[in-house]
Amino acid sequence: MQWSRWLALVVLGSACGEPRSDLGDCPVGSSGCACTQGMACDDSLMCLDGTCVASPSADTGPSSATMATADPTTSPETTAATGELKLDVGDSDTTAGICAESGCKRIDLLFALDSSLSMSEEIGALAAGAAFADIVFALENLNCGDIEYRIGLTNDNDGGFLGNGAVPWFDANEMSAAEITGAFSQAAANVLGNGGTALGCEHVLSSATDLLLGDATGFVREDALLVLVLVTDVDDFGAYDQLGWPQCTCPFGICDQLCTTAARAVDEIYADMLALKGGDAAGVAAIVVAGDPGVTEGMNMCGQPATCCGGGLECGQAHHAPRLWEFASAHGENGVVANICDGAEMVPIAIEGALGTQIDLACQTFRPAG
């Protein structure tokens, strides 16, 4: 797993709609020139990466390119492991720059958010209506569009589905994109401070997977790509938050209040996710936004490693998340990571970018039975 992969995703994900700066006086809407502000082009042309290009013929794919984040200069042979798009996906009908009709047409997306108060900025950024609307738009346009998707939300302390009222999760077959955006934003805003997690026991990964394993609502569909989105500023039952952390010599008895819940092995958790999809690794994916364990800005007073320190005397804005990085890595090219220390505003952008690249490719690659 390349830990800086998310940066490429964000750059690609934000490229859609940005007119190229090297086109000079090229007439807007013309072939090889910038798209209009509404992402339109002259007849027989389509808008790709902010530039008008020739549309494919009717027998080679869709009439418009929904992989608008693709870089037309990217080689089709480039792999997702390098942080770039791979536009040639096995035996699918994908042509360079053009999406494929094969693969999945359903997505089950579960968000697990750390509910601790230290996550206020990140949850606020994700719950912002405009930001989440972009995520919904990315979902709707996966694999040529016409995607049936549902979005679930849970916290870091086995809180179950945190929907609104009698609706445990949000289904595109029953709600409009605007309704889903509003409902998720409200539910996400209500997550903050409501987890009740014991000190050091935050566990977005365990909370999400335990919910799916015991779910009786029918959230997981057999023919849908299952995607977990995990957002936290600590690890999943991190070793450094466990009672008896060897470097812990902190004052005021804080070390005696650390977590006493043992973590399950990550490979066991991943195996459980595979079992939900009949053992098909192509049917599961993960997006992790947490502290990059390859970056250390300092140690807090308990000797716990921090990816970023933040202000004040306590170095602990975000701790290392090696278990979450391991979980994403287990998914191979279906696993994407982003460093939460790069700013709260980057959280929804990184998720949107991941959906438009690796997750889009995962959907094209997944062949549901039947």
**Full CATH superfamily name:** von Willebrand factor, type A domain
| CATH class placement | Alpha Beta
Number of domains: 1
* Strand portion: 5-15%
Q: What's the end-to-end separation, in Å?
A: 32 Å
Q: Please identify the structural class as seen in this structure.
A: alpha/beta
Which fold does the CATH topology refer to? Rossmann fold
The name of the CATH architecture is 3-Layer(aba) Sandwich
The coarse overall form would be globular
Poorly predicted segments = 1-24, 55-97
Q: Write down the Rg.
A: 21 Å
Summarize the structure.
With 370 residues, the protein is α/β, with parallel strands linked by helices.
Task: Give the topology, please.
Layout lengths: L4 H9 L31 E4 L2 E4 L51 E8 L6 H8 L1 H12 L7 E7 L15 E2 L5 H15 L12 H10 L11 E7 L34 H11 L7 E7 L7 E2 L5 E4 L9 E2 L2 H9 L4 E5 L6 H20 L5
Parallel strand pairs: 3-4, 3-6, 6-7, 7-11
Antiparallel strand pairs: 1-2, 4-5, 8-9, 9-10
